[in-house]
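Below is our example:

___
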Amino acid sequence: MYIHQWGRGPRVVLVHGGVLGGRETWRAQRELSERWTLLAPDRPGHGRTPGVGRQDFEIESLLVAEQLLDRPVHLVGTSYGAIVAMYAAVRSPRNVLSLTVIEPPASGVARGVPVVDAFGARVRAALEAVELPPATALREFLAVVGAQVELADPPAPVLIDGMRRLLGARPPDEAELPLSRLRRAPFPMLVVSGGHMDANEIICDTIAQRTGAARAVCPGSGHLVPDTGKPFNDVLERFLVAANRSPSA
């Protein structure tokens, strides 16, 4: 994987979600580079990393663990990348100083809750809509996940390309998150949501309850929580600083 790097200080690995690569997804976090080394990989099929088959959170977690968890780091993942990060964290727990996950669309953790089941089915359908033009599929996908963004007509090429690569990905409702292993892990965990969709709040609440993680809500940008900028950065940095001071870290 190609890895973007900014700043100096303790290392923070930032795993992006489904459409944009590492450079674009974490643009609002660059201010943190004054105090932290930010490492943002391009997941396979995004940015400067070539695609190899369909996107799959378990396979990609191996890449993250092998390439980025070879030394102590704080690990952060958003959306599909949050699922990747959770799997990666339990593969190399000794090198994870903290884990932050932002709105992972892992509807399987609350299977049987109607609003969550419906959300999981809509996400799966959006990823399987390979017959649609990428611009149409992109608009439908962003609406399903609650990404509050105004698209140009036509959308920017980077968004079209990202959606084209996302189509056919392994659906996130197939994720069997390693929640019991995360609860026993030696690092602290934070779960963040955008306060915009009941299904996401239920998923995040469930993950926090079952892992003992801290919980935060950063409203204002829907599913694109990192785009809130300072509100999310402040929450994240307080957590990272506390994790650095904790005995486990």
